[in-house]
Amino acid sequence: MSARTSRRSLPALLLALLLALTGCAEIPMSSSVGVMPVPDELGEPVTQIDPDGPSPGAGPDEIVRGFLLAGVGAGNNFEVARSFLTGDAAEEWAPLAGVTVMPSGSDLADVEARVTSDQQELGLDVPVQGTVDAQGVYRSSEPGATSRMEFRLRQENGEWRISAAPNGIVLSLANFQSVFQSYSIYFFDPSFSYFVPEDRWIPNRASIATDVVQRLLQGPPEWLAGAVVSAIPEGLRLGSDAVTIQEGVATVSLDESAAALNDRGRALLRAQLEATLEQIATVSSVEIEVAGEELDANEQVTVERTVPIPQQPVVVSGQRLARLDGTRLASVPDSPELAQAAAPAVSLDNGFYAYLADDGQSLRRFSHEPEVQDTELAAGEDLIGPSIDRMDVVWTGERDNPGELLVVLPEGGTSTISVPFLQGRQVQRIRVSRDGSRLLVVSSDDEGDHLSVVGVNRNSSGMPVAVASSVPLELGERYQRIVDASWGSLGRIVVLGSQGSGQPHIWSSRIGDPPEDLGIVEDARTVTAAEDNRSIRVGTGDGTLVSHVSGSWQRLVDLTVWAPAYPG
């Protein structure tokens, strides 16, 4: 293989390889299927890589491996890769139909091939780290997952050629991390008070601004549908082929339907585009045009990126509620007596607490201002530790789950939320995001442990009425064991879990990103977070409280406390 890379890098070529796309095709996967749109026309890569074409007299195995390796060469619409195919197959093959990401250390040369006796069929089980779907959502695959790739071959002019091949290309993990970048696509909570980020992996190329806006125009994915809203009218399209950037100004040309927006709609549209586009290093401001004229908005809107919460986690200390302020422990006045497994939660405004009593058979609400109140909210067989959303709704349910959760409304009534994917699972933890738009669930069944996230649909009063989808976004495929999980900020989650047979580690990531390993805390049982990694607090089996300081785990206070939890 030869390369001409004197002026630009290999990553730049691979960026050009994975272009923004318009049609769809599938790659068969042993876990989630990765799908990417296919362009009508494939532009030339920034850097030209010249992979080797088929050698005269090459056998079926060499032809198939050469074809897969030639996927890095995008020149002349993957001309070299197509030269391994028969004429009809070369016309039908869609190289950008999907991207399969191989694990670190994997090599196509090490993948064993299965060849039929007549040498007309060959199969490979390619190891899979994850996939990226049509909207740019990265999904991890289970440890040891493979993608079955089957090829048919026949001879043309005395040489073996591939007559049928799966669509798409395969990238190593290193190349994937070089050529893709994670961007947050910003939607709103239904009140338009808070941004809700949703991460997409997008090829980091010259047209990144156009790609990002196109993802925004597509709307939220199924697992969030109805839980978030957009200022973008249905069917709105770009008015030109690209979003241009000149001297730091990103100009977004929209079709004429944008002109029908009122001032508030225009202001929200601008806020959404600015939040999404200003992540790009070369963008400092955004202009919106319709038919060549600037789209003005005679109104300003303020949308927060995070929901502010008190930074004092609640803990159980001496069988009473307490708050941790830095390294100082402050008892909650008139606290009821609690067990270590009370799983306390505190509302976002510090107004009240919820906790479990009677070995998980009673959910109770406690407040000490303006007067002491300690009342039962709900009863059950074995309840899940509560979570309190920003509307003061308390969430719980049965650990042995029938496919539903129980919510206790602020005025005291209760409602049942159907969550079909929890049917038959044991639920260890539920956590509502602090903006109220998403539900994080740790559960298990015969197939193993699950880490799931799904949108929360609400009525006009802000009360939860349903989950957005019966199919959640599954985040736990790489984990063999999941002990606990918590929301951080800006769509970040923190997980206490193991990706192998060893002790659980603490992992931190944004939803849809490969997690960062923060190391081990001995005998860790619970984890909670507020903002960045420095806010993480870990509770252990012997009552030690540990925090993440300067890249290591340190005991925070010389006290015995249990079940630390930030508001929410």
TrEMBL record:
Key word Lipoprotein present: yes
SUPFAM superfamilies associated with the record: Tricorn protease domain 2 (SSF69322)
Family annotation (Pfam families): Germane (PF10646), Gmad1 (PF10647), LpqB_N (PF25976)
Keyword Lipoprotein applies: yes
Keywords: Lipoprotein
InterPro entries, alphabetized: GerMN, LpqB_C, LpqB_N
Residue ranges annotated for the GerMN domain, each copy included: 209-299
Name of protein: Lipoprotein LpqB
Species of the source: Sediminivirga luteola
Gene: lpqB
